[in-house]
């Protein structure tokens, strides 16, 4: 086993432990952990058994196999970035809808409260509001 | 038919300095329900709205003018209003012009009455950059809509029920004015410009700075392209 293979092996093991720990602390959703485990598995696989990398490099006409590795890594990261962009777009949309719904419900609640206690005048109205102020 | 129910939507983000005056002006101009949509203000804006006794929708954090207006349209849609008026909370729009906009809708030959600063040269001399950007977008939209528009970036507008429902469902998020015009056109709604007065922003800064304006141009152009490729609604509607 060459020195670089040992380095790759150690790095892979550290990554696996890190991901496992993140799941255990519930910081990483299992859905993503699978993807990252798969990534580490590929790194590990190529560290121990580099024949496919050489064959692939030859097939697509890349002279230096490490460049094939960089290409694959870049494509992978690009895909992840795109995936997260989509995810952020969706979350932004959902957050917006939640905020709008909250504004409408907040108004309805206020309307009900003022109906329930019509004696209270404008001076009181800002009272219950102050509780939900974020800062 | 009964009198159409009218709602004035005032989007406000930190407009404590001008909001009270705007509400008074609107009240003097029209008989209508008023809703202030507070876009996560950190000043006294919501308190002023409550104090003035108008409806208040409070967004928990800043969403931007597009989503703020959409919240107002959602309220109008839910409460069954027939006509929604948009008047900015910064006092830029002269509420005295609202009846003229309403007349255009009442005549029934348009679904949106768009307040224009430049029609009949109502005498507005805003910053040159702003004028130039408005002129550019007005040109582009005029071409796309096959109808002459002079003030595509105006936020002073009145819409009827079909557009209230459409915008409650789907409204552009930031810099919505130009995009919303095209969206209305794609849904086969009719737009009519009406001359209005606008004042220079009294309080606070324009929402669009110099670097931002480049982003604004690119974003709106891209949005126009995307909206255009979505295609027109079927004729039947």
Shape of chain A: elongated
Walk across the major sheet of chain B and give the strand order: 3-2-1-4-6-5-7
CATH architectural category of chain B: Alpha-Beta Complex
Radius of gyration of chain B: 17 Å
Q: How large is the radius of gyration of chain A?
A: 27 Å
Query: How much strand content do the residues of chain B show?
Result: 15-25%
| Beta-strand content of chain A | under 5%
Number of strands of chain B: 7
Q: State the end-to-end CA separation of chain B.
A: 22 Å
Q: Which spans of chain A of ≥5 residues are poorly predicted at pLDDT below 50?
A: 120-135
Task: Label the overall shape of chain B.
Answer: globular
Could you please describe the fold and organization of this structure?
Helix content of chain A is about 80%, strand content about 0%. Chain A contains five helices and no strands. Chain A has helices at about 5-25, 30-50, 50-60, 65-115, 120-125. In chain A, helix 1 (about 5-25) runs antiparallel to helix 2. Chain A starts with a helix and ends in a 10-residue tail after the last helix. Residues about 120-135 of chain A have low confidence and may be disordered. With about 240 residues, chain B is α/β, with parallel strands linked by helices. Chain B has a seven-stranded mixed β-sheet with strand order 3-2-1-4-6-5-7, with helices on both faces. In chain B, helix 5 runs parallel beside helix 7 (about 175-185). The model of chain B has no long low-confidence stretch (mean pLDDT about 90). At the A-B interface, helix 4 of A face helix 2, strand 3 and helix 3 of B.
Would you spell out the secondary-structure blueprint of this structure?
The complex is a heterodimer of chains A (135) and B (237).
Chain A (H helix, E strand, L loop, with lengths): L2 H22 L5 H19 L2 H10 L4 H52 L5 H4 L10
Chain B lengths: L5 E7 L6 H11 L3 E7 L5 H7 L3 E5 L5 H14 L4 E4 L11 H9 L5 E5 L11 H18 L11 E4 H9 L6 H11 L4 E5 L14 H20 L8
Parallel strand pairs in B: 1-2, 1-4, 2-3, 5-7
Antiparallel strand pairs in B: 4-6, 5-6
């Amino acid at each position: 086993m060459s020195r670089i293979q040992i380095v790759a092996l150690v790095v892979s093991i550290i990554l696996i432990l890190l991901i496992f720990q993140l799941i255990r602390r519930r910081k990483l959703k299992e859905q993503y952990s699978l993807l990252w485990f798969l990534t580490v598995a590929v790194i590990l696989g190529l560290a121990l058994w580099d024949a496919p990398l050489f064959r692939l490099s030859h097939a697509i006409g890349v002279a230096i196999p490490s460049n094939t590795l960089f290409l694959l890594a870049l494509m992978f990261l690009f895909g992840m970035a795109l995936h997260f962009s989509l995810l952020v777009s969706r979350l932004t949309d959902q957050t917006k809808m939640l905020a709008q719904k909250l504004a409408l419900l907040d108004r309805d609640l206020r309307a009900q409260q003022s109906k329930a206690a019509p004696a209270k005048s404008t001076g009181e109205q800002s009272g219950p509001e102050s509780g939900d102020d974020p800062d | 038919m009964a009198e159409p129910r009218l709602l004035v939507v005032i989007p406000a983000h930190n407009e404590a300095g001008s909001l009270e005056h705007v509400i008074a002006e609107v009240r003097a101009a029209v008989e209508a329900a008023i809703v202030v949509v507070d876009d996560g203000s950190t000043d006294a804006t919501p308190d002023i709205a409550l104090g003035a006794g108008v409806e208040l929708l409070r967004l928990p954090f800043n969403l931007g003018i597009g989503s703020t207006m959409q919240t107002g349209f959602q309220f109008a849609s839910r409460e069954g209003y027939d006509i929604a008026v948009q008047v900015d909370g910064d006092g830029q729009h002269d509420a005295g012009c609202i009846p003229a906009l309403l007349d255009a809708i009442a005549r029934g030959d348009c679904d949106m009455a768009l307040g224009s600063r430049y029609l009949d040269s109502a005498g507005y001399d805003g910053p040159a950059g702003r004028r130039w950007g408005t002129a550019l977008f007005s040109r582009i939209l005029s071409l796309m809509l096959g109808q002459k528009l002079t003030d595509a970036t105006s936020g002073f507008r009145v819409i009827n029920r079909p557009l209230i429902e459409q915008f409650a469902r789907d409204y552009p998020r930031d810099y919505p004015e130009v995009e919303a015009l095209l969206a209305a056109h794609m849904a086969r709604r009719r737009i009519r410009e009406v001359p209005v007065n606008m004042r220079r922003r009294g309080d606070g800064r324009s929402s669009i700075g110099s670097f931002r304006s480049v982003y604004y141009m690119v974003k709106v152009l891209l949005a126009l392209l995307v909206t255009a490729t979505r295609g027109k609604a079927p004729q039947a509607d």
